[in-house]
Fold this sequence. Notes:
Elements: E1 3-8, H1 26-36, E2 38-42, H2 44-52, E3 57-62, H3 67-75, E4 83-88, H4 91-98, E5 106-111, H5 118-122, E6 127-131, H6 137-149, E7 154-157, H7 167-172, E8 182-184, H8 192-197, E9 201-205, E10 212-213, H9 214-219, E11 225-229, H10 238-243, E12 246-249, H11 261-271
Parallel strand pairs: 1-4, 3-4, 6-7, 6-11, 7-8, 9-11, 9-12, 10-12
Antiparallel strand pairs: 2-5, 3-5
Helix pairs in contact: 2-3, 6-11
Amino acid sequence: MPRPDLQPVTDPADERLADYVSLTDVALRSRHEPAKGLYIAESSTVLGRALAAGHRPRSVLLAPRWLPDLERMLADLPPDDVVVPVYVAEEPVLEAITGFHVHRGALAAMHRPPLAPVADVLAGARRVAVLEDVVDHTNVGAAFRSAAALGVDAVLVTPRCADPLYRRSVRVSMGTVFQVPWTRIDPWPGGLAELRALGFVTASLALSDDAVTLDDLVANLPERLALVLGAEGHGLKAETIAGTDLVVRIPMAGGVDSLNVAAAAAVAFWATRA
């Protein structure tokens, strides 16, 4: 197991804590994390799932009462010689460092694993979700949680989609971003050709005059299906809709024409479950 190196912290300005400072600044994190190859895991539950998926911490920052949980999680890992700095601070100090109340008193700066090629992620997959330019981290996390719960084999995100490993995405997903295989598909929508070459029928979820209902899709479910879901507000790009094999709409009542993208994802995943 990795060996924790416990280091008490009392000063929020301690330079050892640079990875954890001002995490509420989205623009800063979007620049800072990819450059350093890091992401932030928040809460002991999320950290446990990240460790179980083979991700490794650069450091951990937590309140004293969460030390036993961390030690149990590290004890479950294969033995190695890695030393992990564990910064221990009282909860008011944690909040002063990060700028927010730390959920369940634990954060970890995790090494970001390299993304696999699309073909590798989709090997053996039958149902795939594609998130096109979904910029809200909460919606990305919620879509991943639904994908994990409803048996989606993999998720692809387009170049402009929000980072699934951003702190809020990870937390909303309850750590399922570590459970569902995913990668970025680039270029897009040119990547539709790669999906088709891999044997997938591609289906846009959109309002269109020629759209079939989700019920119609389920009645003749393809062996390999890629469901493409669009950004908040404007939905899918016109060229994406034109490039997919099918356009699918969820039947609505009550004068409502569409659902939030995370809700639509959950409905579509459930309807097309194996």
